[in-house]
Design brief:
Layout (H helix, E strand, L loop, with lengths): L2 E5 L3 H12 L3 E6 L10 E2 L8 E2 L12 H4 L10 E2 L3 E6 L5 E4 L3 H6 L5 H13 L1 H8 L10 H11 L3 H5 L5 H11 L13 H13 L3 E2 L4 H13 L3 E4 L14 E4 L3 H8 L5 H8 L6 E10 L12 E6 L3 H12 L9 E4 L13 E10 L8 H11 L3 H4 E7 L1 H7 L15 H6 L15 E3 L13 H14 L2
Parallel strand pairs: 1-2, 1-10, 2-9, 6-12, 10-16
Antiparallel strand pairs: 3-4, 5-8, 6-7, 11-14, 11-15, 12-13, 13-14
Helix pairs in contact: 1-10, 1-18, 4-6, 4-9, 6-9, 8-9, 8-13, 11-12
Protein name: Phytoene desaturase family protein
Organism: Streptomyces xiangluensis
Length: 471
């Protein structure tokens, strides 16, 4: 029987391990932390019974992931739940962009821009399950569904700021801009529309779902399946060099390119080592979890029913803050993501006290404290919020890097999503999971299709490893 070692037990590492185990490969997963899950871990961070996701929280790309759907993870306790409203982007004048799972319902709330929203999302969202074959894999290849991909991909090539101009009203512009800002990338750059279009399209097809019982349920279910398939998981095992690996036929790495260059050293071909060492990391996240009595008193009523709230003001304001953090400057009013997962999963709350998950976009390696900036931004759209806070838990950018070494400088995207790295990953090649050393493959979110708990990076890397094993 062939053997494989997977380094890292996040969603991608476990996906690679499962794909290999399903092909009758004997798999061992080595995880440096004492707990599996990577960015999908959850815990009671402030009060007993109050459950907070550590990083990954809302999963429009994971709920529709072709690989995860193929695993039957409901048998292992994974249940997806949806809020009444997916996302709201409030504005200072009391209006808001409101994202429903239904394209038609979203469009109906956008006035004159509704027709433009439907033109942008009707076709791609209806075809999303077919389209995902192309957008959830390497982009440097012949597409399986070129017509569907063109309808999605041509707008995705544009800067988000250009695409936003198709909307006449601020509600639609801000709603789109908040989604585009998930890329941690300046919104005037080419391809900056792509991640926003991706999560909006996926959401219109499957919703912005959360995992009941916390994001940890995703990787807990994956680990349970892997064990049933005969795989092994060892925690508290840090791999610093190939000398730390057991004898194995293939190794799949859920680590950053720079970390892999350090681990493999001069075993890597020089051209690959140069590319990996030049790999770039984008802005960081500063996270504050709040325990809030009675929830957030949003001025916009729809925000009180939304699983996600984007706090950043107008499209122009969001674009300005993204330029600032990319330049290494901390804005006074950062873009803030607010997660209210308890609305879809009430088991996360403790009576009338609810867990409110937030993070602000900040410069990479930001050494300051953004707690007050986050609080003030929420208070701006929810007067009285401060008075309801009964506890907080903070994770700084260095804290993110310590929590998960893949989050260099607090960059939870595992790399800057600029044009070269968004298209090709760590280096330009038709096989982005190959590291140039036979039997070794990279599966972290640095590879296509990038961040998320969808497991597709791991599935694709495992396919390359199986190709090698089968000769």
């Amino acid at each position: 029987m062939s053997t494989a070692t997977v380094v890292g037990a996040g969603p991608n590492g476990l996906a690679a391990a499962i794909a290999l185990a399903r092909a009758d490969v004997q798999v061992t997963v080595l995880e440096a932390a004492d707990e599996i899950g990577g960015g999908t871990r959850s815990s009671e961070a402030i009060l007993p019974g109050l459950l907070h996701d550590h990083c990954s929280a809302v999963h429009p790309m994971a709920v529709g992931s072709p690989f995860l759907k193929s695993l039957g993870l409901a048998r292992y306790g994974l249940k997806w739940t949806l809020p009444e409203i997916d996302c709201v982007h409030p504005l200072d004048d009391g209006t808001a962009g409101v994202l429903h799972r239904s394209v038609a319902e979203t469009a109906a709330g956008l006035g004159a821009d509704g027709r433009r929203w439907r033109r942008l999302f009707d076709g791609p969202s209806a075809a999303y399950d077919t389209l995902s074959d192309d957008i959830l894999g390497p982009l440097l290849r012949i597409p399986r569904h070129p017509v569907h991909l063109a309808r999605f991909g041509i707008p995705a090539l544009a800067p988000a700021s250009l695409l936003a101009k198709m909307f006449s009203g601020e509600e639609a512009r801000a709603l789109f801009g908040g989604a585009a800002a998930h890329a941690f990338h300046p919104l005037h750059r080419p391809l900056s529309a792509s991640i926003g279009l991706g999560i909006l399209t996926a959401g219109h097809r499957h919703g912005w779902a959360v995992a009941e019982g916390g994001s940890r349920r995703i990787t807990d279910a994956m680990a349970a399946l892997l064990l049933d398939l005969g795989g092994k998981i060892e925690t508290g095992v840090r791999v610093r060099s190939v000398a730390d690996l057991p004898p194995t036929d293939v190794t799949v790495w859920d680590v950053t390119p720079t970390a892999l260059a350090d681990i493999l050293g001069d075993r890597l071909p020089p051209r690959v080592a140069r590319s990996y060492r030049r790999y770039r990391y984008g802005p960081g996240a500063f996270k504050v979890d709040f325990a809030v009595d009675g929830g957030v008193p949003w001025t916009v009523e729809a925000a009180r029913r939304a699983g996600t709230v984007h706090v950043g003001g107008t499209f122009a304001e969001v674009a300005a803050t993204e330029r600032e953090i990319h330049a290494g400057r901390m804005p006074e009013r950062p873009f803030v993501l607010v997660g209210q997962q308890y609305l879809a999963d009430p088991s996360r709350s403790a009576g009338t006290v609810h867990p409110v998950w937030t993070y602000a976009h900040v410069p990479n390696g930001y050494s300051g404290d953004a707690t007050e900036a986050i609080t003030a931004q929420i208070e701006r759209f929810a007067p009285g919020f401060r008075d309801r806070i009964i506890g907080t838990a903070v994770r700084t950018t260095p804290g993110f890097a310590s929590y998960n070494p893949n989050y260099v400088g607090g960059n939870i995207m595992t790399g800057a999503k600029d044009i070269p790295q968004l298209i090709a990953g760590p280096r330009f090649t038709l096989q982005p999971y190959d590291v140039g050393l036979p039997g070794h493959y990279l599966c972290s979110a640095a590879t296509p299709p990038g961040p998320g708990a969808h497991g597709m990076c791991g599935a694709h890397a495992a396919a390359r490893a199986l190709h090698h094993l089968r000769g």
